[in-house]
Amino acid sequence: MRCLLLGLTPAPVSTPPEADRRRWVILLGALTALGPLAIDAYLPTLPTIQRELATTSGAVQLTLSAYFAGLTVGQLFWGPLADRLGRKKPLVVGLLLYAVGSLACAASPSIEWLAASRALQALGGSAGVVVVRAVVRDRWAGRAGAEIMSSIVLVMGAAPILAPSLGGLILGIWGWRAIFGTLAVAAIVVLLALSRALPETHVPPATSESLLRGAREVMQDKRFVTYALASSFSQAGMFAYIAGSPFVFIEMLHVDPGVFAILFGTNAAGFVASAQLNRRLLRRWEHTVIAMGASVVGSLMALSLLGLTASAAMSLVPAAMLVFLYVACLGLIASNTTAAALEGQGQRAGLGSALLGAVQFASAAIASAMVGVLADGTARPMALVMTTCAALGVGSVALGRGTDPQPDALPAS
Predict the structure, then answer these.
(1) 255 and 372: one domain?
(2) Residues 28 and 72 in one domain
(3) Nearest-angstrom CA–CA distance, 110 and 143
(4) pLDDT number for residue 406
(5) Chain-centroid distance, C-alpha 208
(6) How far apart are CA 155 and CA 143, in angstroms?
């Protein structure tokens, strides 16, 4: 504990050299991945939890809703705190809450206890999601910030690819409670690494402005608003796909659940791969130019999928290819629009990151709900929501491009 407390002393650092950069990326990626990991590793346990805790499937689903609620509320809490106290303290406290929440999940005697513990776990996990974006903004700007975000996606992208299989393996050997125990251990390991490898990147101002005033200033920044919306619409399109794809592929196209898991993992791999392609593209083009191109291509893929749903002979291969390309485009959009949104926030990077995350989750919740509301027994609702999100994303990036600085005014990388 002494080393943790010593590690909290603010010690602003310069942009890390290349040798240290990889360590930063791995650590920041791990911090970001803990939140999603608690979702993806948990999914295979739902039927078992329902049976062992003698509850209903609806009640088990509420534990997932509690987690999303904790992620949303937590981001609004940790962001302003990171601006006032520095980045490292909230991360340490968040990781401790995540570990305690995970252990409480493992010890749950009832579904109500589990839901409350999941909310606590998410509250802690959200610190990594929101503060990591602020740390990146502290140390890198412009193209460099977008490149770092792409590298972080590579690390955190392993979660949706590997976590369901890992969760299923642990479930089969030790039971569902061991999954939460494993998550608690992972949080402690990341905490120890954080205390040693991540210096403080933000010195809080001598006087702190009110939260409402800060939020008002952030929301008056047209560049932040337009690119935050673009990032949010891309996330909304992703959640529309996540919400609708099990029905479309398993029920409509009669894909075996095991094959669907492979398709799901392949799409996640496509998202990660495109984020890595982004690092190469950034050597030639500005990050906002790449976001614009990817938004246009993604909208064409979604529109093509919508057209395919009108065909009575809709088949697996073209549908899977269009979805893969659409998700891959999101990997190019997410890193670049996030970096662009936070470029001008400076001392308010934590608050800006929190507002960005809240808008993203709200958009994602609306999009996934709309897929259910519009359900008509076809793939059309999923494709329609994806297309709408893609079109709105194109418009948002186009508006954001109008706020881009001239080449000679770009911040130093």
Answers:
(1) yes
(2) yes
(3) 48
(4) 60
(5) 28
(6) 19
- Taking the C-alpha atoms of residue 124 and residue 126, their distance in angstroms, rounded to an integer, is 5
Give the chain's length.
413
Please indicate, yes or no, whether residues 177 and 271 belong to a single structural domain of this protein. Answer: no
- Residue type, position 241, single letter: Y
Residue type, 182: T
Please tell me which residue, 220 or 14, carries the higher pLDDT value: 220
Does residue 14 or residue 30 have the better pLDDT?
30
Q: Which residues have C-beta within 8 Å of that of residue 133, sequence separation ≥ 6?
A: 149, 338, 342, 349, 353, 356, 357
Domain ranges, residue 178: 13-200
Rg (CA), the chain: 21
What is the Cα–Cα distance from 236 to 367, expressed in whole angstroms? 5
Q: Are residues 156 and 61 in the same domain?
A: yes
CA 93, chain centre distance (Å): 20
Report the C-alpha gap between 334 and 211 in whole angstroms.
26
Task: Give the chain's domain count.
Answer: 2
Q: Which of 76, 49, 51, 54 has the alpha carbon at shortest distance from 64?
A: 49
Q: Are residues 121 and 239 in the same domain?
A: no
Interatomic CA distance for residues 3 and 39, integer angstroms: 31
What are the tens digits of pLDDT across the range 46-88?
A: 778 888 999 887 788 778 778 878 888 888 888 888 888 888 8
The CA distance from 259 to 2, in Å, is: 49
In-domain check, residue 240 = yes
Compare 213 and 383 and report the one with higher pLDDT.
Answer: 383
260 and 181 share one domain: no
Answer yes or no: is 413 within a domain: no
Which residues, other chains included, contact 257 with Cβ-Cβ below 8 Å and sequence gap of 6+?
A: 250
Residues 187 and 82 placed together within one structural domain of the fold: yes
CATH number at residue 132: 1.20.1250.20
Q: Is the pLDDT assigned to residue 142 strictly greater than 70?
A: no
User: Tell me: the pLDDT tens digits for 237-261?
Assistant: 988 887 788 778 877 888 876 777 7
Q: Are 130 and 34 in contact, with CB atoms under 8 Å apart? A: no
Domain stop point among 200, 224, 245: 200
**209: in domain:** no
* 193 and 325, same domain (yes or no): no
